[in-house]
Every structure is written in structure tokens, then in C-alpha cells.
Amino acid sequence: MDSTQLALLALAAGIILGVGVTLIVVLAFRARERALREQSLALPPALTAALDAIDDATAVIDSSGAVVSVSASATWLGLTPGQGLEQPELRELVKAARGLGSSTESQTLRIRRGRISDDTRLVVARATTIADRLTLLIVRDISEQERLQQMRQDFIANTSHELKTPVGAIGLLAEAMESASDDPEQVRRFAARMSAEAQRLGQLTGRIMNLSKLQAADELTEVGDVAIDEVVAAALEQYQVQAESADVALVRGGDRGLFVRGSATILVEALGNLVANAIAYSPRGSRVGIGVRGTAEAVEIAVTDQGIGIAEADQQRVFERFYRADQARSRRTGGTGLGLSIVKHAVNRHGGEVRLWSQPDRGSTFTIRLPRTEAPLVGAESAKRKRKGARAVDAA
């Protein structure tokens, strides 16, 4: 074999060796990059942005159970990147997803917000593996839906219970009247009681309908400038006879000429409910005061009585539907347990709030606070301001 052939063989061997080494180096680099990708916990910016766009709470969990990333909507879960997933129910869900190597079915769980928190939430959660070491956790809080559903069920149950009483009483009184048909005095007595029960049934039905309307509507349908003087006057006139029968004096005081935006009819009913309650729970010979005060931002209407007061334990619940702090007295006075609930929802619809101060045997004060508005322009004043505005435009 001559030197030329040897050179060619050496060259071929060198090329083959070089190509082999290059391939080995390339494969080594690719294997290293793949290993780094598998071990890396950094998420692509696009994925992070996508997770933040999801309304549900989302978190990325690594194989050790530590939180890698949390979406902005997941703050209520109390998760912190770099720390472990605290809720054992969610840890089990993530573990199941890793074991399957895919997504788990949605599960309804009750979890705590944090390890030491007493706040529990009802959630629907599912987990999905998105890499060898990463699992995506999606959690939807359905606690509010559960609360609303419970409120609906309680409302139906309470309404059915409340309606049973007058309906049952009317049925019994009708039977009693039939049995006493030959006794005119007894018939008149039963007829009077039946009329009272029918009136109570009508009142209860009407208040249930009003409360349902307030809760169902997202906003008021008839809105205008409402004079507080007229609201107070209408509420007092509506319950003047009841006050005189109970020997309770109605006293009006405070600022005048104040206005709010809203529905006069709803506000009269709300204030009337407070006045009616104050009269019903006041002793004979006492007074019920309606005071009005205006600030730069709000109008406050306070109804104060000298009645039996409300225990502190009951003050947080008096605005609940059908709740009665004094069951026996409510029955005697014909209370439905809906008046204060209507007040609360009516005031909330106007962007306001209701405050309560009360002490047993010292009386109670319910204060309606509503956003204030400027008095509407009427008559000559309105025309004067319009002319002034027109002159300003002409001058410009």
C-alpha cells in the first residue's frame, strides 16, 4: 500500500472519527438540555400570563409538593411560591394526577384557606400534569353558591312554615264557626279572629313578595330625586293610628330639605317598617323619635324608641329573614320577621347601610344612612340657572 492510499485511509478515518465525536458532543448537549428542561421549574412567560387570565385559582406544583407559581386569582388560597401546598386535600389531588400522568376528575372538597385559618371554603378542584415534574392545580371557590343555595332552601322552608300558621288557624276557625252556627256571639268572635288571621296572611304574603322583588332586582327600576321630608311625613302618617292606639307619641326632628336618589315608595316602606317596629316594642306612654341629619356626603335617618331593647347576641341576626328576637311578642304584635330584612335590602339597593344601637331595657336606635344628592332645581330657580348658563355660553 503506497503512501497515497495510506493518506486517504488516514483522512477517511479522521473524518469518521470527527463526525463521530461531533455526533457524540451534539447528543450530549441535547441530552443535557433535555435534562435541564426536565429539572427546570421556570415557567414560560406565556404560560404564566395564561394562568393569570383564568378566573379560577391556579397554581403550579412541583414533584416535592412545593408551590412553583400562583396566579393572581389564587391569593385567597394562602399559597406562597417556594412553600409547600398546605391543604392535605389538594396535596392528595396533585398526587393522584402525578400517579395517573394525566388529569384527575373534578372533585368537590372543603378546604381551609391556610394551615392555621378557621375559614373553610367549598371548592371544585382538579389537577393536570404539564411536565415530568410539574402539575397544574385549578381550584374554583363555590362557597358563595353554596350560601345562596342554602339561603333559598331556608327561605322556602321558613316561608312554608310561616304560611302554615295563619292558613291552619283560618281552617280551624272555619270549623269552629260551623260548630257554633247557632250561637251568634261565638260566630262573631270567630269571624273577628278569622279576619285578623286573613289580614296577617295578606301582610305576610305582601312582605314576602316585596322582599323577593328587592332581592331579585339588580338595581332600582324607578329612580328619582326623593325628598326625605316627604318620606318621613308619609311613614309617620302611615303609622299614626297604630301609635295612638298604643299610646306612643311620634316625634320628628332634625334637618330638613335633604334629598337622595332612589325610589320614594321603597324608602317609605323601609322607614315605615322601622317606625312600626319601634311602636310595637315600646311601652305605653313612651315616645318614638325620628331624627334626620345631613352631612356633606350622606343623609342619616334615625328611629329611636324607649322599648325593651335587643340583646347583643341577637343584634347581628335581627336583619335575617323570619328571625325574631322575641318570638312570643312578635306573635302578639303580628310581626312577620321580614320587616328588618326588607329595610336592609331596600337601603342596600340605594347604596346605603343600616346601623343598630341597642341595649336591653334602654331602647334601640336604627339609623338609615343614604348617599346625599343636591336638591333638584324647580320653578324660578331652575329657569334662573338656565338663563345664567346660556349667558355664559354666549359670552364664550
Automatic annotation (TrEMBL):
PROSITE patterns: HIS_KIN (PS50109)
Transmembrane segments: 6-29
Pfam families: HATPase_c, HisKA
EC number from the UniProt entry: 2.7.13.3
GO molecular function: phosphoprotein phosphatase activity; phosphorelay sensor kinase activity
UniProt keywords, alphabetically: Kinase, Membrane, Phosphoprotein, Transferase, Transmembrane, Transmembrane helix, Two-component regulatory system
Catalytic activity: ATP + protein L-histidine = ADP + protein N-phospho-L-histidine
Domain Histidine kinase: 158-374
Protein name: Sensor-like histidine kinase SenX3
